[in-house]
TrEMBL record, chain A:
Function of the molecule: The GINS complex plays an essential role in the initiation of DNA replication.
Region Disordered, residue ranges: 1-24, 138-162
Gene3D superfamilies: 1.20.58.1030
GO cellular component: GINS complex
A GO biological-process term: DNA-templated DNA replication
Family classification: Belongs to the GINS4/SLD5 family.
Boundaries of every DNA replication complex GINS protein SLD5 C-terminal domain copy: 218-276
Chief place of localization: nucleus
Composition bias type Low complexity, residue spans: 138-155
Compartment annotation: Nucleus
Stated name of the protein: DNA replication complex GINS protein SLD5
Domain GINS subunit: 81-191
From TrEMBL, chain B:
Naturally occurring in which organism (per UniProt): Penicillium cosmopolitanum
Lineage of the species this protein comes from: Eukaryota, Fungi, Dikarya, Ascomycota, Pezizomycotina
Pfam families: PSF2_N (PF25005)
Subunit structure: Component of the GINS complex.
Family: Belongs to the GINS2/PSF2 family.
Name of the molecule in the record: DNA replication complex GINS protein PSF2
An example Gene Ontology CC term for this record: GINS complex
Cell location: Nucleus
SUPFAM superfamilies, sorted: GINS helical bundle-like (SSF158573), PriA/YqbF domain (SSF160059)
Record bears the keyword Ribosomal protein: no
Bias (Polar residues): 136-145
Amino acid sequence: MDIDDILASVDHGPGASPESTSLDHQSLTRFWVSERAVSEVLPWPTALMDRMMDRVRMQIESIEDIAASSADAPPPTTHNQNANANHNPNLNLRLSILQTDLARTQYIIRSLLRTRLAKLTKYSMHYLVKLSSTNQNLSQSQSQSQSQSQSQPTPEDSVPDISAIASFDPLSESEASFVHAHQKLLASHYSGSFMGAFPRQLRRLDDNAGGTSMIQGPETREVVFVRCLGAAVPVLVVGEGEQEEDIGVTMRMGDVWVVRWEGVKAAWLKGEVELL
Amino acid sequence: MAFPLPRGITPSEIGFLAEMEMVTVVPRQRLEGLELLGGPIEPLVPPRRASLPLWLALLLKRQRRANIMPPSWLHPEPLNLILEVESQHPDYRDAFSPPPPLPGQPSIRDDGLAPTARPQYTPDGNRYYASPPFLPQNTAQTEGFSSRDPPALPFHWVEMGNMLLESASDDLVEPDQIRRLLKDLPATGGGGVALTGVGAMEVGEERGFLTGVVDNLRKIGASKEQARREQMAEQRANGAYDGAQDEEEEDYMEF
């Protein structure tokens, strides 16, 4: 690639280069299929989704422009009848193609977001705790001391405060604020309907008395269908401690396997396997 | 409920993915090039052939604006060959016939050659390896199916075959025979399931069953696995671990 090409693609902003449009479309499709295949929330591809949303917005505008121009077209007079007859049939065809393409993309985005919301509401505490623990800052200690200082702990106190966090990984920013608001509401509902009547020490939602955590997380040991895209990809066999990893089978290019998700997640992040 | 569907994409969504496969069309009218969200569409100039995604090809076909050229594998002869391989060949009698190679993967005839994956790079600098439905596995080859590679069923063969039989059967060569051959194909596998070469719709059908089986095996084996881990940890602590491993518990399975 020439340096001029790089500069040109930067100049035109997102969605300017045709190859990047189709690559982004393929990446989005693959990400959607992956998100649907596993039970955990996958890392939000911020840059990709920003570009896709921009393109969808631009495409809606251009469809509206075309539709408006066809509506505004003056009634055929003897003068421009020929031009219109040549132009209009294709105009409707173009519109229907553009609209179908738009609807297909919107379906993928909608299905992707709703799948993530379903996982987030199901495992809301898990992701809130994850968010606040990856951002080891004052928010954690704050909520801890708050709940201890209060004489009347409520279920709401066990919802981690995420207002000060810097990284939302694996969620997007709006997903993080959604899951926080959702859990706050849920906690206050529990409190009002039954947990308020519980003994004080039983009111937390993140209790792990007796070594059993109350927080349910996604099952990363579930099996998934994968296709190997790299030349050779080893399946990692993850031990109980996160560090010990043995190498299991090695998948070859083009192979389709049923494997544990945790064993291929690293390879998926590098794009060397795809989920089916 | 935010999302009512089960894990994994549904059969109708597999069809939706198959509609992204590129097919060859012969346009019957002109159409200027279009910038779609799925990528640019080349201008249509009859009688020049063009590659379009299947959904667009079907849209044009239904309005009689284009004819679809059948994919190179969707002819009676290659289908007969594949059927023969799946039912006669000792290597594939209990398995799927080999899929079309990915870019950089040596074909079945140069076995022994090492595959070399050829990544593209996304605008974010990540590696991207193309795979179905974004590979030209359903286009009509100019020299017909008798190219160097033996015919192979692409990942979305069930959906592609059914959609073309439904909406473009007049563009197919001997559609009735093709319909019969496609019906015979899935019935050949005898018992075991080796997944390489599996079709998308077959994954969709087997997903619930297979993942259920493997997950239950995992749950049954979980306590054993736990015991084995503890034993291994103990051995390691005693310095007596000699690498001998219990082969009984596999974390992966090939069917």
